[in-house]
């Protein structure tokens, strides 16, 4: 307790001299600073690893295809034995922590994703650094909020500040950082949240600019202007990006599902690493984040993407180039899913940008070949990045402003808006939820844009199970049941076996007419009076499913059964009282 004394004194002083609003603004700047530093450290660490590995490779060597396997194995080793946590999709876990764990994120996540993603991406894993650094920034925000005893709502805001600072720092894009946090991390955004997010995002960008200058993950200066006559092509590109986004999402789920069937952790890492290495051997652009490939396409050096390819080295035919890029589009989601599914650490942010860039380039190249036109391949490459990002992450505004900021201008703002909207609409027509949220929403672990359901989902079912109901055995007679009625303050009597299995239910209404008839009391068995419960509830069910059962059956009380064993009853009235208490507390916060 002694080490808490200075903190308590500080918190008391803070409450006397600094308002809650100003304190949150100060914390937002502090979290933005830490997130920016984390982004710089991660980026520099990855580049250092990549530089050292490149020194091992000669032009004739194909040893690099084995690097991803090494990176994944190191990641699995560290995550299992040192960190003791699984990797997976980091932003999905952040959304789960906000929704189901009161915005409390494990302290180890302030550094775990930095360490593991540096190994995975540094050794050529086909994923990105953005999601790991967002997890890092979010964890910093959550734990700072927890340290200074802030409530759930303010902790959630600080998580958003960490995410905004991280994105802002890694791309030098403060506006995109704020919007990403609002679109992806924070489901319920108010005007009061906007200023802390701005402060965190600007601070993260300033840290990055101070330490790295213009050396960010990806940047490009526009060389071609937007032509209104190209609008029909941009409309078609938007549709194509939407369809490719659906392919990316579904392929990712399918590949991760397939590789999860390998139960041994290290066996899974070896299988995934070997398959990824084979893919990289055939398609070298799949190696790592892929930003170098995008830069080559934007610079008009597309033939250089054949370098180090085992089968397509030094070939310049246009048809082969287009076929090769089409193959890259088909295989990139597989490579990303193998990296994450086999135990690697990284995110789909960079893969979506990479896939968008090559899709936009391929679209422009094919269009120019067919029509004999001269639409800008660099512009379509950039706008394609926006389209796929919008269609995969379901963050259209983030996609628009990110590409606008990394190109240092708003020359392409109109086509960015157009393609982003069309890609998002096309993708959401086939897939209702984003890759980050789909599984969470299907399990009931994340509820967006519905205040009632959000509050309901915060109720812990196991804490409101009523266990004061008196039970009776099915072989007892009515006399024994009447004795229970005398001492019970409830009107429901569960009928259970010796193994505590629920076989039926008796209510006071069931015996009211005969409980005073002494003759019938002696000869009437409990088994003849009991009836089945209208429905049963599992203690592991989400509250939305429970309320659906109440509504469907019209019951006010339902039994809770865990693997066949009776645990107690749930009362609709108690759920309503708990809901009301949480709603008042949430509004007060």
Put the structure in a nutshell.
With about 600 residues, the protein is mainly alpha-helical. The protein contains 25 helices and four strands. Strand 1 and strand 2 form a beta hairpin.
- By DSSP (H or I, 4+ residues per run), the number of helices equals 25
How is the main sheet built? Answer: 2 strands, antiparallel
What is the H/E string? HHHHHHHHHHHHHHHHHHHHEEHHHHEEH
Rg result: 29 Å
Shape call: elongated
Sequence of strands across the biggest β-sheet: 1-2
* Unreliable parts: none
Pairing-aware structural class of the strands and helices? mainly alpha
Mean pLDDT across every amino acid position: 85
Strand content: under 5%
Q: What is the number of beta strands?
A: 4
Helix content: 55-70%
First CA to last CA: what distance?
28 Å
């Amino acid at each position: 307790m002694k080490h808490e004394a200075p903190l308590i004194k500080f918190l008391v002083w803070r409450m006397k001299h600094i308002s809650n609003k100003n304190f949150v603004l100060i914390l937002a700047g502090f979290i933005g600073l830490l997130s920016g530093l984390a982004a710089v450290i991660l980026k520099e660490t990855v580049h250092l690893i990549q530089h050292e590995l490149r020194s091992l490779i000669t032009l004739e060597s194909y040893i690099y295809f084995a690097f991803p396997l090494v990176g994944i194995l190191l990641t699995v080793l560290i995550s299992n034995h040192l960190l003791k946590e699984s990797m997976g999709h980091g932003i999905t876990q952040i959304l789960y922590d906000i929704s189901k764990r009161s915005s409390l994120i494990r302290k180890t996540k302030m550094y775990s994703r930095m360490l593991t993603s540096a190994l995975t991406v540094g050794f050529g894993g086909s994923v990105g650094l953005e999601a790991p650094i967002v997890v890092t920034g979010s964890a910093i925000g959550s734990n700072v909020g927890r340290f200074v005893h802030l409530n759930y709502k303010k902790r959630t805001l600080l998580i958003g500040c960490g995410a905004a600072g991280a994105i802002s720092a890694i791309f030098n894009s403060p506006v995109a950082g704020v919007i990403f946090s609002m679109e992806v991390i924070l489901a319920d955004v108010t005007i009061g949240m906007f200023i802390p997010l701005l402060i965190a995002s600007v601070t993260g960008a300033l840290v990055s600019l101070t330490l790295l200058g213009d050396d960010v993950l990806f940047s490009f200066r526009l060389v071609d202007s937007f032509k209104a006559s190209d609008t029909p092509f941009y409309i078609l590109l938007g549709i194509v990006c939407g369809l490719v986004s659906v392919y990316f999402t579904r392929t990712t789920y399918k590949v991760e599902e397939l590789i999860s069937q390998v139960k041994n952790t290290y066996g899974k890492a070896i299988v995934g690493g070997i398959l990824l290495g084979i893919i990289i051997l055939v398609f070298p652009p799949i190696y790592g984040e892929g930003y170098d490939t995008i830069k080559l396409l934007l610079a008009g050096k597309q033939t250089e993407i054949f370098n180090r390819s085992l089968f397509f080295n030094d070939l310049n035919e246009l048809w082969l180039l287009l076929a090769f890029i089409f193959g890259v589009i088909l295989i990139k989601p597989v490579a990303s899913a193998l990296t994450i599914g086999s135990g690697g650490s990284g995110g789909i942010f960079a893969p979506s940008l990479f896939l968008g860039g090559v899709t936009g380039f391929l679209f422009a190249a094919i269009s120019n070949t067919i029509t004999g036109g001269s639409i800008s391949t660099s512009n379509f490459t950039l706008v394609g990045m926006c389209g796929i990002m919008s269609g995969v992450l379901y963050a259209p505004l983030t996609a628009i402003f990110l590409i606008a900021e990394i190109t240092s201008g708003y020359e392409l703002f109109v086509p960015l808006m157009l393609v982003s909207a069309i890609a998002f609409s096309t993708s959401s027509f086939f897939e209702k939820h984003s890759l980050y949220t789909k599984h969470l929403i299907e399990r009931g672990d994340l509820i967006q844009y519905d205040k009632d359901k959000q509050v309901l989902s915060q109720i812990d079912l196991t804490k409101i199970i009523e266990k004061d109901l008196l039970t009776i055995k099915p072989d007892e007679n009515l006399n024994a049941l009447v004795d229970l009625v005398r001492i019970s303050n409830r009107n429901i009597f569960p009928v259970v076996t010796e193994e505590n299995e629920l076989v039926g239910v008796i209510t006071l209404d069931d015996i009211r007419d005969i409980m005073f008839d002494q003759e019938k009391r002696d000869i009437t068995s409990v088994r003849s009076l009991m009836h089945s419960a209208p429905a049963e509830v599992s203690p592991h069910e989400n509250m939305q499913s429970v309320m659906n059962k109440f509504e469907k059956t019209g019951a006010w009380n339902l039994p809770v059964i865990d693997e066949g064993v009776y645990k107690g009853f749930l009362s609709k009235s108690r759920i309503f009282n708990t809901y009301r208490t949480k709603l008042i507390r949430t509004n007060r916060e």
